Amino acid sequence: MKDGRTHLAYKAEHVVDLESDLVVSAEIRHADEGDAQTMVDSVMEAQINLDQAGCEAKIEEVVADKGYHSAANLELAESLDLRTYVAEPKRKYQSRWTDKPAEFKKAVYANRRRLRRGKSKRLQRRRSEICERTFAHVCDSGGMRRSWLRGLANVRKRYSIAAAAHNLGRILRKLFGVGKPRVLQGKGGFAVLVYLLIARLIARLGDRCRPRNHLATPLHPIKNPTAANHHSQNAA
Questions:
Q1: What is the pTM of this model?
Q2: Which of 22, 71, 121, 235 has the fewest CB atoms inside 10 Å of its own CB, making it the most exposed?
Q3: Which residues pair with 58 in a beta bridge?
């Protein structure tokens, strides 16, 4: 601006797996695009990323804050077989459905019913903890709050690298208990790294040397076999 101030030109949107804390999709869009207009597009982009990675998981549930709530957005998600848990903002007046399609009213009321369940409250608490933390790691710790690149494509590439670094940190923490290389800096950093590698090697050797059970059938018949759990991705 002429007075020296800068205005937001882009906005970042994360689709996060609430189970693994991994960013499945990190999209950069123009700031004039509303959240309710881009939610389904981001979820579909996340599903494409999962398919390209060879993952068989299908996104079935979407958890989002009240900024993503709109009748058209909920109806579009329902048409794609996505169960939504989108927080509904408090409005001064009641909604009027006389000039809107019947599908809009059906989607809004279905989402409202799901919000009253205990599962919705658990998912919303998980979303506020996990999803917001990814923004803190990428934008604040990762330095992506501002960008000096020009063009949406260039900013999107740079932001994707920062999101990939976040996912790499989650994977390292799962494997070694340390998520960032900075933790290993200092006088005892090298010793900690050696200790972690040795502990990992001992665990691998212990798994290989452990005797295995070669029974082909169970000792007792299973009376009530349960179906296999279907993995679903809770995304925000």
A1: 0.72
A2: 121
A3: 232
Backbone angles phi, psi at 2, to 5 degrees: -70, -30
Query: How many CB atoms are located within 10 Å of the residue 27 CB?
Result: 18
Instruction: In whole angstroms, give the CA distance from residue 185 to residue 192.
Output: 10
Q: Which of 138, 125, 166 has its CA nearest to residue 22?
A: 166
Is the alpha carbon torsion for 46, 51, 54, 60 positive or negative?
A: positive
Give bridge partners of residue 13 from the DSSP assignment.
Answer: 27
Sign of CA dihedral 127, 128, 129, 135: positive
180: which 2 tokens? 């960032």
The answer to whether the CB of 61 falls within 8 A of the CB of 232 is: yes
Pairing of strands 23-30, 83-86: unpaired
pLDDT tens, N- to C-terminus, the chain (236 residues):
567 776 667 889 999 999 888 999 999 998 888 888 999 999 999 999 999 999 888 999 999 999 999 999 999 999 999 999 999 998 888 888 888 899 999 999 999 999 999 999 999 999 999 999 999 989 988 888 888 888 889 999 999 999 999 998 888 888 766 666 566 555 556 666 677 777 777 877 776 665 555 444 444 443 444 444 444 444 44
Task: Provide the residue ranges of all domains of the chain, joining segments of one domain with +.
Answer: 10-176
Dist. CA 110–CA 108, nearest whole Å = 5
Helix (H) or strand (E) segment spanning residue 195? helix 189-209
- Best CA proximity match to 49, nearest among 27, 65, 76: 27
Q: Could you tell me if 233 and 17 are in contact, meaning their C-beta atoms sit under 8 angstroms apart? A: yes
